[in-house]
Design a protein that fits this description.
Its main location: cytoplasm. This protein is of the alpha/beta class. Helices cover about 40% and strands about 25% of the residues. It has a single domain, classed as 3-Layer(aba) Sandwich (Carbamate kinase), CATH 3.40.1160. Strand 3 and strand 4 form a beta hairpin. It is globular and about 65 Å long. The two termini are about 40 Å apart. The structure holds adenosine-5'-diphosphate and N-acetyl-L-glutamyl 5-phosphate. N-acetyl-L-glutamyl 5-phosphate (X2W) binds near residues 35, 67, 68, 90 and 252.
Length: about 300
């Protein structure tokens, strides 16, 4: 940022240009999934926090769901705990789930809350456990074993997917001047066991439950890329499914695109996968013509 003072006329023009967008999203809920790879440096964290605080201030209701995959990975490595991903999901034993909760619901959640608050917002940190918001069931996946070529069921341990979302607490928070910031850990449907939930999947479940108008998925790539590395600007659900099936979409992008499909089917009007490291990505996407990334719609 330069230190130059903006011309007041330019500021007024910018605000007027944003007016139709503010009206379009007035009182709407927008779920923003803030991926661990999108978090970047202190400047990027501040831009994100400013965007979220401004949205709330102009009458839009942001709900932040955050990840932290790389940060969990770094802590597991420091502790000498081996970790592997299968189909984009972290295999999670009891020791790992304890670290996952510590990093997600602890340090990262509080860091995001503190940064939003430092920018004048009023954020409150929650996890899927709070208020019984999200109950998870164990994920079962069958995958092709590369060694044998045979399909087999893989046990991912304490990896869950949202089974029930109770929106009661979220509704209270959304109706207040608080901005909810949610870590993707949940309890089991049938007891207090902690489950590690992929943050994309979690964000999709929350967006569906609160009838969000938009779901923004902030990551570290410009959006969904085709086989030649070019950005795909728009995708239908069918096209998105095809990209997963033919392997164009792989790794961490799989749960992201699956989530987009789920959210659109649940009635979210549009889901956008975009680069969260570009300055003010959220504001530009919602309040200007300059939206970037991949828009997935019906
Ligand atoms: N077709 C694709 N287009 C874009 N990214 C892809 C694609 N296939 C796989 N990826 C990978 O998915 C990653 C994003 O997922 P992930 O690392 O889980 O991000 P986040 O932490 O933001 O959730 C990208 O950095 C990229 O390496
Ligand atoms: C089951 C599973 O894979 N959980 C994820 C939760 C965090 C996450 O999803 O973070 P990002 O959004 O930064 O990728 C993990 O353990 O890394």
């Amino acid at each position: 940022m330069t230190g130059s003072v903006p011309n007041p006329h330019d500021t007024a023009r910018i605000l007027v240009e944003a007016l139709p967008y503010m009206q379009r999203y007035d009182a709407a809920t927008v779920v923003v999934k803030y991926g661990g790879n999108a978090m970047g440096d202190a400047d990027a964290a501040r831009w994100f926090a400013q965007d979220v605080a401004i949205l709330k201030e102009v009458g839009i209701n942001p709900v932040v769901v955050h990840g932290g995959g790389p940060q969990i990975g770094a802590m597991l490595e420091r502790l000498g705990i081996k970790s592997e991903f299968k189909g984009g999901l972290r295999v999670t034993d009891q020791a790992t789930v304890e670290i996952v909760e510590m990093i997600l619901a602890g340090s990262i959640n509080k860091q995001i809350v503190a940064t939003i608050n430092a920018e004048g917002g009023r954020a409150i940190g929650l996890s899927g456990k709070d208020g019984g918001m999200v109950k998870a069931r164990k994920v079962t996946r069958s995958m092709i074993d590369p060694a044998t070529g045979r399909e087999e069921v893989v046990d991912l341990g304490f990896v869950g997917e949202p089974d029930l979302v109770d929106r009661t607490v979220l509704d209270w928070v959304i109706a207040s001047d608080l901005i909810p910031v949610i870590a993707p850990v949940a309890t089991a449907v049938d007891g207090p066991q902690t489950y590690n939930v992929n943050a994309d999947t979690f964000a999709g479940a929350v967006a569906g439950a609160v009838n969000a108008k938009r779901l923004l998925m902030l990551t570290d790539v410009p959006g969904v890329l085709d086989k030649t590395g070019q950005l795909i600007h728009r995708l239908s659900i069918e096209e998105a499914r095809r990209l997963i099936a033919d392997g164009t979409v792989s790794g961490g992008m799989i749960p992201k695109v699956e989530t987009c499909i789920y959210a659109v089917e649940k009635g979210v009007e549009g889901v956008v996968i975009l680069d969260g490291k570009t300055p003010h990505a959220v504001l530009i996407e919602l309040l200007t013509d300059g939206g970037a990334g991949t828009l997935i719609t019906r």
